[in-house]
């Protein structure tokens, strides 16, 4: 296992700082400068129309044949705006500023898939079962609601009727004592692909890939960090959707969605 022994980034030798590492759990991996740029490329590749908007309000994209809108805000350490806000008739989804690249990439790929193919064969309930198989406690329906906690207790999920509006709602929050939290909120009649993609990404054991200098020293004690392993075996084990393949086009390897693999919801079909 690689360790930095709490060294600040400036003290790392250049060769070591640029070492590619695999980070688990991926839902605690720090975001990178490439995260929202990669999301915007995915939408452009799928021919979503970008609209001019003030830079501090993010980039707004409209699907050409539906009423789905996505607003992507450029990453910065000081950013307070959400990384992604997506909406359509009767639903809205928000992903906060520090959402990991991999969660964001799978969410955007799912938006593209839904806009092009409609509900298709997405199965959020099977993805929920994937959380249970991954060791999340409470990952099952009880009186119409789910309250699940990750095995390390550093992420939790609530899925059920909103306490005030009673509309369908999902909220995810992940954080360690040594990092700022990130959250996702899905409200209303959210596309099944999007719900499935987020649940499956949270359950997946696939690591996030980063350069060592991108991992804050204070976060090391909460993460399992190992030298990066080839992804060829994982890529052949999974059959990503056309949207997921589109998300990977032109994106740096460390910010492209890694295949969810056999643990994803689609394995149950």
UniProtKB/TrEMBL annotation:
What's one Pfam family here? SPDY
Give the span(s) annotated as Disordered.
249-269
The DUF317 domain extends over: 150-208
Write down the InterPro entries for this protein, in alphabetical order: DUF317_SPDY
UniProt name for this protein: DUF317 domain-containing protein
């Amino acid at each position: 296992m690689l360790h930095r022994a709490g060294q600040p980034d400036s003290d790392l030798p250049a060769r070591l700082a640029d070492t590619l590492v695999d980070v688990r759990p991926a839902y605690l991996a720090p975001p990178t400068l490439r995260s929202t740029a990669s999301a915007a490329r995915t939408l452009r590749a799928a021919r979503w129309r970008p609209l001019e908007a003030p830079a501090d309000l993010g980039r707004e994209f409209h699907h050409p044949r539906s009423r789905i809108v996505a607003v992507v805000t450029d990453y910065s350490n000081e950013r307070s705006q959400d990384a992604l806000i997506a909406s359509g008739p009767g639903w809205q989804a928000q992903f906060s500023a520090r959402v990991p690249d991999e969660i964001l990439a799978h969410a955007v790929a799912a938006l593209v898939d839904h806009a092009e193919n409609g509900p298709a064969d997405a199965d959020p309930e099977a993805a929920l079962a994937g959380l249970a198989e991954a060791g999340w406690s409470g990952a099952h329906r009880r009186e119409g609601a789910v309250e699940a906690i990750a095995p390390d207790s550093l992420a939790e999920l609530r899925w059920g009727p909103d306490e005030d509006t009673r509309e369908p709602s999902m909220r995810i929050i992940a954080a360690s004592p040594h990092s700022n939290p990130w959250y996702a909120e899905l409200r209303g009649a959210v596309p099944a692909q999007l719900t499935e993609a987020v649940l499956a990404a949270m359950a997946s054991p696939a690591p996030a890939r980063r350069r060592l200098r991108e991992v804050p020293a204070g976060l090391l004690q909460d993460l399992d960090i190992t030298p990066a392993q080839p992804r060829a075996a994982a890529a052949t084990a999974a059959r990503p959707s056309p949207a997921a393949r589109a998300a990977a086009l032109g994106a740096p390897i460390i910010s492209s969605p890694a295949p969810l693999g056999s643990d994803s919801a689609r394995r149950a079909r």
